[in-house]
Design brief:
mainly alpha, disordered C terminus, 66% helix, 0% strand, 201 residues, elongated
Length: 201
């Protein structure tokens, strides 16, 4: 029985699409380097390897035009599996200090951009004294994205209220102007201003 292809949530799929586009921009002249980086970044995001068809589906969803063949992707998967068995290619809690520091800095910059107050995370400087908690950082990113979506909805509501208030004010001012003009015209039709008298010859 064939395995069901993985289903990624919107946030994860967005990260995978971004990884595909970044790899495409970075390695325009090398399909091998392009696939190696893409598969490596996908593994960092999803914490696992996937089938060639899954990688191709993500690449197509990201709008990558130079889609490789399934065989080419499978060879890239084999290279990635070989690299993952070497001592230098470690992930999770065993990630090297330099890699943890780089990841922490990237997450800090993203959180600073997403944070409504522009402050980002409280301690963006990774000291290396403890393993970088990527799971916690991912959860905080999700929370910031939810808060930003709520703020955008609230801003749209406020904009709609402001537009309605402007329309109502314009109508009120227009109605007041018509009434003032009508009163002035009525006074003009009555003849001479009040207090002016005409003597008989």
């Amino acid at each position: 029985m064939p395995r069901t292809p993985p289903s990624f949530d919107d946030v994860t799929l967005g990260l995978l699409h971004a990884a595909a586009r970044q790899a495409d921009r970075t390695h325009r002249d090398s399909n091998t380097a392009f696939l190696d980086q893409f598969i490596r970044d996908v593994r960092v995001t999803t914490h696992r390897m996937h089938s060639a068809q899954t990688y191709l589906r993500v690449l197509a969803g990201a709008g990558i035009e130079r889609l490789p063949s399934a065989g080419t992707v499978q060879r890239a998967i084999s290279r990635a599996r070989t690299v993952s068995t070497t001592p230098t290619a470690v992930t999770g809690p065993a990630m090297r200090a330099a890699e943890q520091h780089t990841l922490a800095q990237h997450v800090a910059r993203v959180m600073a951009l997403l944070s409504p107050d522009g402050m980002g995370i409280s301690s963006p400087d990774y000291t290396g004294d403890h393993p970088f908690d990527a799971v916690d950082a991912y959860r905080r990113l999700q929370r910031l994205e939810i808060e930003n979506r709520a703020l955008r909805v609230h801003a749209e509501e406020l904009t709609a209220m402001l537009m309605a208030a402007r329309v109502a004010l314009a109508e009120a001012l227009g109605h007041h102007g018509v009434r003032a003009g009508t009163v002035r015209a009525a006074h003009g039709r009555r003849g001479s201003p009040i207090g002016e008298s005409h003597e008989d010859d």
